[in-house]
Amino acid sequence: MVETLRWVGESDVGSLWLIDQTLLPTEKIEIELNSAEAVCEAIKSLRIRGAPAIGIAAAYGTLLGMQSVSSEDPDAWHARLERVTDYLARSRPTAVNLFWALDRQKECAARVREHGGSTNAVRQALLIEAQKIHQEDREMCRAIGRWGADLLEANMGVLTHCNAGGLATSDYGTALAVIYAAEESGKRVSVYADETRPLLQGARLTAWELQQHGVDVTVICDSMAAQVMREKKVQAVITGADRIAANGDVANKIGTYQVALVAAAHDIPFYVAAPSNTFDLALASGEQIPIEQRDRSEITHGFGRQTAPDGIQVYNPAFDVTPAHLVTAIICERGIIRPVNRSQIKKTLSGIK
Ligand code: MRU
User: Fold this and answer.
1) pTM metric for this prediction
2) Per the omega criterion (within 30 degrees of 0), is the bond before 198 cis?
């Protein structure tokens, strides 16, 4: 499996290393991040991306932001922690895992402070908490794989959109975990990877990752999904998610909604694979999910070449929302949520804040 990100060192002197995903598939280079500012830049520029990986990076980023603090004054410490977490929270708006991880770090620091812990003790606790978040992600992804593998049959064609693989998580993925687990249980599947305009996470990352694992993968343009379904090359769709509202509406990479519509038109099941920290039960429906708007240059100058006229108007939402009624099931580490509705979600997630 790929090691998407890793911490090297201790809580006071240490750094976050991650694969710079903007360089894939031609270069696999790790970069070292030493500050919250560097983590924020890496998240904004998609060097690290995918909802769970963003959350893990932000957890380590919080610690990086607190490394230089020497004051033992609890108020000064608290003020700094608020500034660092607010700053990281402004990196990207849609994936809820980011905010969930920052809240965990804030709660962790508050617990240590309540018990009179020193600045150093808080830092150590922040590292342990980030490593816990990282390890829990590994375990959740494996569990998602185990639940989801039963939904696939040998020799199926599976379409996926964007990258919800090892690169988007600690190492095993969510949507791709289902494919890895199916293959590990002896079921060969053929994957169709939507290239995922405008930033090509499907062509650059999913195709690279699956190829590394020897999984049969074919890249298609986003506009070809209906045709491959009509040709009966695909019997299931699996995507990841960036945020799931209480009613089961799913925000994921732009283009996911139209894949779900096309799957419904061809009577093909549309599965979403996501860990429990991707649910945002505070939001009644997907209408309330904030959708990130990204720079026009991603569309007009994708990958170095001008592809639209000078001065043209551009609209570039990075995510869309698939309504719950189009989602056949959500594969979560706690089990399969089907049908996708408020009460089934509540039942499966009960016990989770
Ligand atoms: O803009 P990105 O590349 O961060 O978008 C990622 C996605 O939409 C993924 O499908 C989602 O985060 C799930 S990753 C397990």
Assistant:
1) 0.97
2) yes
